[in-house]
Design a protein that fits this description.
Chain B: This is Cell division topological specificity factor. The complex is a heterodimer of chains A (271) and B (90). With 271 residues, chain A is of the alpha/beta class. Helix content of chain A is 43%, strand content 16%. Chain A has 14 helices and 8 strands. Chain B has a domain of 61 residues: 2-Layer Sandwich (Cell Cycle, Chain A), CATH 3.30.1070.10. Classes of the chains: A alpha/beta (271), B alpha+beta (90). At the A-B interface, helix 7 of A face helix 2 of B.
């Protein structure tokens, strides 16, 4: 039986989709069978980040409504053969997803794949609640910034109340993934530190992804950064986070300011 | 502006941290207990709506939440002409 991991945040634009793609690809590269499911009905983007936007024929809603088989809707990645994508629908019908339908799809995926990553839409409405509903674990993507941390706290409350596991009295494993971390700004006291974020959310840390131009470039190219530039600092951080998600005991190193004269001159970012 | 001001302006993170801690302590407390005032508001409105057609223009609801006491104030004007009880009309 595979593990279902929801990637969520409450706030939009913090890096849920990018992180889903990067983590999923990193896990798949180790040989595990991985499915990425886009729950953002009406505003799908995981296909674009994965570079599969022109290969979408059927989607999650088609599968739930029975107009396509799951095997028809799953898109196999061209780079990693154990990586699959189940795209969201572009329909404007908010009620296209039903709880029973989602449950059935997740159950089928769970029986075939080692990992199922559910890319949650922003917000705390129905779509976000369905994305987390059947999860065993949650990755809470947080930027070191007040509104993101507040929304993450809200999402943690929902994970503990509205998931099937929580309702059955079981624990849902939660991990905070701090993204867009700028070591230089944090060291100057301009940005919440990792300790601040963890203390406020009192949830274990999965990893720290440094702010990086390469993440944007990877999105532009339609490739998870862990596949296109695995040696980049952000990609390495994602790969380490994926290993921790798989249960490996790997210490998290907080990126630190390390700017030399030349770096300053060239405007390079530390970490 | 002296040197101290420059220093103060730079360290905004501790302020962020403190504001968040205060805010989240409050939000978590409210989250754990069902919001009585909101429930009352909804149920009272539902009961009134069952008997009287409520015109949104003549409706004022205000909630005031305090540390030890909260108040719910509902002010509904029922014009005599349109105040036809739904139960009787239906």
């Amino acid at each position: 039986m595979g593990k279902v991991v929801v990637v969520t945040s409450g706030k939009g634009g913090v890096g849920k989709t990018t992180s889903t793609a990067a983590l999923g690809a990193a896990v798949a590269k180790t040989g595990k069978k991985v499915a990425l499911v886009d729950f953002d009905v009406g505003l799908r983007n995981l296909d674009l980040i994965m570079g599969a936007e022109r290969r979408v024929v059927f989607d999650l809603v088609n599968v739930i409504q029975g107009s396509a088989k799951l095997s028809q809707a799953l898109i196999r990645d061209k780079r990693v053969e154990t990586l699959f994508l189940l795209p969201a629908s572009q329909t404007r019908d908010k009620d296209a997803l039903t709880e029973d339908g989602v449950g059935e799809v997740i159950d089928k995926l769970r029986s075939v794949f080692d990992y199922v990553f559910c890319d949650s839409p922003a917000g705390i409405e129905r779509g976000a609640q369905l994305a987390m509903r059947f999860a065993d674990e949650a990755v809470i993507v947080t930027n070191p910034e007040v509104s993101s941390v507040r929304d993450s706290d809200r999402i943690i409350g929902l994970l503990d109340a509205r998931t099937l596991r929580a309702e059955q009295g079981e624990q849902i494993a939660k991990h905070v993934l701090v993204t867009r971390y700028d070591a230089a700004r944090a060291s100057r006291g301009e940005m919440l530190s990792i300790d601040d974020v963890l203390e406020i959310l009192s949830t274990p840390l999965l990893g720290i992804i440094p702010e990086s131009q390469d993440v944007l470039r990877a999105s532009n190219l339609g490739s998870p950064v862990t596949l296109s530039e695995p040696l980049n600092a952000a990609a390495k951080a994602y790969i380490d986070a994926a290993r921790r998600l798989e249960g490996e005991d790997l210490p998290v190193v907080v990126p630190f300011e390390r700017k030399g004269f030349l770096d300053r001159l060239l405007g390079r970012r530390a970490a | 502006m002296n040197l101290l001001d420059i220093f103060k302006r730079r360290s905004s993170a501790p302020v962020a941290r403190e504001r968040l801690q205060v805010l989240l302590a409050y939000e978590r407390r409210n989250r754990s207990q069902p919001d009585l005032v909101s429930i009352l508001r909804e149920e009272i409105m539902a009961v009134i709506a069952k008997h009287v057609q409520i015109d949104q223009d003549y409706l004022q609801v205000s909630m005031d939440r305090g540390e030890t006491m909260s108040t719910l104030e509902i002010d509904i004007q029922i014009p005599n002409k349109s105040a036809v009880p739904l139960a009787m009309a239906g």
